[in-house]
Amino acid sequence: MEFSAKQIATFIQGEIVGDENATVHTFAKIEEGIPGAISFLSNPKYIPYLYETQSSIVLVNKDFTPEQEVKATMIKVDNAYESLAKLLNLYEQSKPKRTGIDPRAYVAETAKIGKDVYIAPFAYVGDHAEVGDNTVIHPHATIGSGAKVGNDCIIYANATIYHDCRVGNRCILHAGCVIGADGFGFAPTPEGYEKIPQIGITLLEDNVEIGANTCVDRATMGATIVHSGVKLDNLVQVAHNDEIGSHTVMAAQVGIAGSTKVGEWCMFGGQVGIAGHIHIGNKVNLGAQSGVPSSIKEGSVLIGTPPMEVKPYFKSQSVFRKLPDIYFELNALRKELDELKKQLNK
C-alpha cells in the first residue's frame, strides 16, 4: 500500500517541503533510508543523515531549518516523533486481522467470547473467563478461570492471566508476562516460612501495556491496581497490593515492593528499586538504579541511593571519584599536624 506526501501531510497536519507526489510504502530509520521509505528526524544528533538519506520522505519538526540541500521530501510537523507514532498506528490498523477460534485451542464451555476474537493454537481460556470483542490471544497464552479481558487487547505467546484477574480494554500483554501470580507473602515460624494465601486479584485498567517477562502480583486481599495508560517495560516487578497511577512509565528491571502507591505521570529509569509501604507522588522522575527507601513528594526529579536532586548528585559523584586521593592527602595532613603538635609541645 502506497501513500503520497500529500496524503500523509493531510493526515498528520504537516507542511510539505518538496515533491507532494513523492510516495512511500514502508518505514526506515533515517540512517538506513531506502527509496520508497518514510523516516523521521527529532534528535539533533541525526541531522547529518538527513542530507545523505535515501528515504523518499522525512518527517521533521517545524522549527528545523536545513543548512544544505535535502534530497528527500520533508514534511514539517509540530512533533516528528508523535507524528511517526500516528503513522505507525495507521499502518498497524491497516493490516488484515485474523478471527475465530483455532480447533487446537482450548476454550471452556462456560467461557464468554466476544465478537471477532482470534484465539490461536494451544491457547487456553478457562471456566467462566471472559474475552472482549476484537481481542487477539496468541499461542500458549493462558486466561485463567474467572479472568476477564476487555476489548481490542493483544495477549502474546506464553502470557498468563491468573484466575479472577481483570484486564481492561486496549491492553497489550507481551510474551511471558504474568498477571496475578501470588504476592510474596510468608510468615516466619520456628519450622520455616508459612505461606500466606493471596486471595486478592490484579486489576489492569484500559490502555495498559506490560512488557515481556514482567510480573504484576495479585493482592493479599483486595487488588493490585495498574491504572489506565501505564506502560511497563520488560522484566519489571510490581508486588502485591501496589497501586500504579495513570500514565506512569517504568523502564526495564524496576522493582516495587508491596503495598506501595505510585502517583500519576511518573517516570522511572532502569533498575530503580522502591521499598514497600511508601508513597511516591505524581510526576516523580527517578534516574536509573535509584534506590528509594522512603516516600517522595510530588514533582521531584531525583537520582541515586538514597535519591537526591540531579545536580548535587552529579557533583557528589565527581567528588566520589577523587575520594582515594583525598583519603591519602588527609592522612598526610594528619601526620604533618601531629608533627607540628609535637614541636609546639616541646
Automatic annotation (TrEMBL):
Listed EC numbers: 2.3.1.191
Catalytic activity: a UDP-3-O-[(3R)-3-hydroxyacyl]-alpha-D-glucosamine + a (3R)-hydroxyacyl-[ACP] = a UDP-2-N,3-O-bis[(3R)-3-hydroxyacyl]-alpha-D-glucosamine + holo-[ACP] + H(+)
Gene Ontology terms for molecular function: N-acyltransferase activity; UDP-3-O-[(3R)-3-hydroxyacyl]-glucosamine N-acyltransferase activity
GO biological process: lipid A biosynthetic process
UDP-3-O-[3-hydroxymyristoyl] glucosamine N-acyltransferase non-repeat region domain location: 22-90
InterPro entries: Hexapep, LpxD, Trimer_LpxA-like_sf, UDP_GlcNAc_AcTrfase_non-rep
Catalytic center residues: 240 (proton acceptor)
Keywords: Acyltransferase, Lipid A biosynthesis, Lipid biosynthesis, Lipid metabolism, Repeat, Transferase
Any one of the GO CC terms: membrane
Pathway entry: Bacterial outer membrane biogenesis; LPS lipid A biosynthesis
Function field: Catalyzes the N-acylation of UDP-3-O-acylglucosamine using 3-hydroxyacyl-ACP as the acyl donor. Is involved in the biosynthesis of lipid A, a phosphorylated glycolipid that anchors the lipopolysaccharide to the outer membrane of the cell.
Quaternary structure (record): Homotrimer.
UniProt similarity note: Belongs to the transferase hexapeptide repeat family. LpxD subfamily.
PANTHER family according to UniProt: UDP-3-O-ACYLGLUCOSAMINE N-ACYLTRANSFERASE (PTHR43378), UDP-3-O-ACYLGLUCOSAMINE N-ACYLTRANSFERASE 1, MITOCHONDRIAL-RELATED (PTHR43378:SF2)
Entry protein name: UDP-3-O-acylglucosamine N-acyltransferase
Species per Swiss-Prot/TrEMBL record: Bacteroides stercoris
